[in-house]
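User: tokens in, sequence out, please.
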């Protein structure tokens, strides 16, 4: 049982590991990398059963009052106009008497200790653990969503825990995490919670990392950049048609987010889920890679992930490995230097190769990290700087 970030393992329900599941998992798995959410929490918290329909409010800093008590949410490009008593499209924000509130502040429905490679981040503190969390809700409706059971749910439909930002940071430290990851659903929709945890995490010496769809407005993104160290952005396709028809979203704002993150010096990695016949046309893949090279730089790590049939795309077959190899070839010929293939454990493209001397500098199998030859952010063989956030030498 595990929540999924950018890959395509089967999704799970909003049923987090029970303590018994966890103990069984640890006893049978050599890579005990996902933990019961409340295993490490204090007795008082452990005694709390997850609550179905837990709603915890926080006033949103990003809305504009309109006539007649209606508001416009300014958090993401959807810019929902919400009448009194109603909610925005993400299902977790509500107009109460002309003011707009988050309904999920301090109410995560998913918390796990994950390897940071699972986010996926391949250039951020390799082989460390990331305390990962999500609430209900999302601002897109992707037909291939891996976590649709929580992303396409309201707070009333899931089981959530009552966990303050202080407690998240405390437990992350106690459990040995080096970072906090805002992930599984689009973290923009629990923006206030993410920002408050992020500020505390910074003070506690933890990194903040997110896996996001990049569908956020420039104002809130600017504030978020002050605490976010690294972002893995889903670039789901490279046409407006794909975003409109499969995600109920738009491509242009995602590209703007990527450019802003670059300008603000947030470490960026990109995930592209390659879906047969939907976004695997080589000319479009090439165009996307050339855009990444030009706007973000050739040293931007890109993860091409294998699709497996799920949610509303159950009739689409898994991505052939040959397609992923072709896509990777197109990315390399477009000049990208760090091109990975995800969801095929054991594939050679899980490893990091130095673009200068071509030697393997980080060896990986799935989420397991083997030999590492990156020292103080440089290739140990030839001294070429490798982009990322690395452990001290
Ligand atoms: S964050 Fe939610 S309520 Fe706000 S504009 Fe986006 S979808 Fe609408």
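Assistant: Sequence out:
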């Amino acid at each position: 049982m595990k929540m999924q970030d950018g890959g395509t393992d089967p999704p799970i329900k909003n049923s987090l590991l029970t303590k018994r599941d966890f103990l069984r998992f640890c006893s049978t798995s050599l890579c005990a990398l996902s933990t019961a959410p409340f295993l490490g929490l204090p007795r008082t918290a452990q005694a709390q059963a997850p609550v179905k329909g837990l709603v915890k409010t926080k006033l949103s800093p990003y809305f504009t009052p309109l006539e007649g008590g209606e508001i416009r949410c300014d958090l993401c490009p959807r810019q929902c106009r919400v009448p009194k008593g109603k909610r925005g499209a993400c299902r977790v924000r509500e107009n109460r008497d002309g003011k707009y509130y988050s309904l999920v502040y301090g109410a995560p429905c998913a918390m796990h200790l994950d390897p940071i490679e699972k986010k996926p981040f391949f250039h951020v503190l390799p082989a460390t653990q990331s305390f990962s969390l999500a609430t209900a809700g999302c601002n897109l409706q992707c037909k291939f969503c891996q976590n649709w059971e929580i992303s396409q749910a309201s707070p009333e439909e899931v089981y959530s825990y009552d966990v303050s930002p202080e407690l998240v940071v405390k437990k992350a430290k106690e459990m040995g995490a080096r970072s906090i990851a805002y992930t599984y659903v689009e973290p923009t929709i629990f923006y206030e919670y993410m920002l408050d945890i992020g500020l505390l995490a910074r003070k506690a010496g933890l990194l903040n990392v997110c896996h996001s769809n990049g569908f956020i407005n420039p104002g809130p993104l600017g504030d978020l950049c002050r605490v976010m160290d690294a972002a893995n952005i889903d670039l789901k396709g490279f046409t407006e048609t794909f975003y409109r028809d499969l995600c109920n979203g738009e491509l242009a704002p995602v590209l703007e987010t990527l450019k802003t993150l670059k300008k603000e010096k947030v470490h960026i990695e990109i995930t592209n889920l390659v879906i047969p016949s939907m976004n695997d046309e080589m000319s479009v893949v090439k165009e996307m890679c050339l855009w990444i090279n030009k706007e973000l730089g050739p040293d931007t790590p890109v993860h091409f992930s294998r699709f497996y049939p799920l949610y509303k795309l159950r009739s689409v077959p898994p991505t052939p490995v040959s397609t992923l190899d072709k896509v990777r070839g197109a990315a390399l010929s477009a000049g990208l230097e760090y091109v990975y293939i995800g969801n095929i454990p054991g594939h050679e493209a899980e490893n990091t190769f130095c673009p200068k001397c071509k030697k393997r500098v980080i060896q990986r199998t799935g989420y397991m990290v083997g030999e590492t030859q990156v020292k103080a952010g440089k290739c140990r063989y030839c001294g070429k700087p490798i982009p990322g956030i690395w452990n001290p030498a």
